[in-house]
Specification:
Layout: E1 13-19, H1 27-38, E2 42-48, H2 54-63, E3 68-71, E4 85-86, H3 88-93, E5 98-102, E6 105-109, H4 112-122, E7 131-135, H5 139-150, E8 155-160, H6 163-173, E9 179-183, H7 187-193, E10 198-201, E11 227-230, H8 239-246, E12 251-252, H9 255-270, H10 276-290
Parallel strand pairs: 1-2, 1-3, 4-6, 7-8, 7-10, 8-9, 10-11, 11-12
Antiparallel strand pairs: 3-5, 5-6
Helix pairs in contact: 1-9, 1-10, 4-5, 4-9, 9-10
């Protein structure tokens, strides 16, 4: 029996996801599946919040004693000013994706970093002392960069089409480790691929419905045993990952990162470790239904 209105009681604790727009979010599917499986008295809803209403929305959620909520585009940076405190990971990454309300004290976290790193550990890959290459330098790259730096990666190379923008990002993290920036069509970048142990796509290139897209990668140059990771989860296997696999590389897609960040948030709110496999299964089923499969 699924959760329904009859199961929501006066004692039920409230969680949600804040964004604009928000109807597309997969978080309610992930979190409510985990809530039902854990048998705990919570409910998780979508919270549509336009940019200009953010301050009021945070005050309202605090007043209504929401246990916590996730934060997505476009509020992940702006919400930091509305909180009482921010965890170190979120401060360094420069974005909050999870808020926990502890007796009216709002604490911001970023669980994207944990979500990104978990699948690497499950694959048996330790970044310590390794060469990592990240394609893209947008908002999605920030948690990836910090996760790898915190894991003592030897060096990060940002392969990008706009080196000026990427250099500013690299400078923000320069105090924590070595980061270099290369244009992804330069010869120096092609040469660097031969030293890369981990190649990560953080760009939206190849995301559904534009599934033919991918960053420019010369697979013949990439180190033969490099692990290839795409943080996109729709489609399940992007062109980037398909080509990597055809060239003999182990691959990871973004579903583990999405489920992992959600699981970490769930534990922060409830103190319960959710069923991660169930969350991944709920994600796959929902994506399949949305794409008419």
């Amino acid at each position: 029996m699924g959760r329904g209105e009859a199961m929501i009681k006066g004692t039920t604790k409230n969680l949600g996801v804040m964004g604009w727009p928000i109807a597309h979010s997969l978080s309610p599917v992930l979190q409510n599946a985990a809530i039902e499986e854990a048998g705990i008295d919570y409910v998780y809803i979508s919270l549509p919040v336009p940019t200009e209403k953010l301050k009021e929305a945070v005050a309202g959620l605090r007043a209504m004693q929401f246990t916590g909520w996730n934060v997505t585009i476009p509020h992940k940076q702006a919400i930091m000013a509305e909180l009482d405190a921010v965890d170190e990971d979120a401060r360094i990454i420069g974005a909050v994706n999870t808020v926990v309300n502890r007796d009216g004290h709002l604490m911001g976290y970023n669980t994207d970093c944990i979500g990104f790193m978990q699948p690497l550990a499950q694959q048996g890959f330790s970044p310590k002392g390794k060469e990592a290459t990240i394609l893209g330098a947008g908002g999605a790259a920030r948690a990836v960069i910090w996760g790898l730096l915190r894991a003592k990666v030897r060096r990060i190379t940002l392969g990008v089409r706009n080196p000026a923008k990427a250099t500013r990002l690299a400078e923000e993290f320069a105090a924590y480790g070595e980061i270099q920036v290369l244009h992804w069509e330069d010869g120096a970048f092609l040469d660097h691929l031969a030293m890369t142990d981990l190649l990560v796509n953080t760009t939206p290139l190849g995301m559904y419905p534009h599934v033919e897209g991918m960053p420019p990668v010369d697979w013949t140059k990439l180190k033969k045993d490099a692990l290839v990771y795409d943080i996109i989860y729709t489609p399940e296997r992007t062109r980037f990952l398909s080509e990597a696999q055809e060239h003999g590389h182990a691959i990871i897609n973004g579903e583990g990162m999405l489920a992992g960040q959600g699981a970490a948030a769930f534990t922060l709110w409830t103190g319960v470790a959710p069923d991660l496999a169930l969350m991944k299964r709920a994600l796959r089923e929902e994506l399949a239904s949305r794409q008419g499969k």
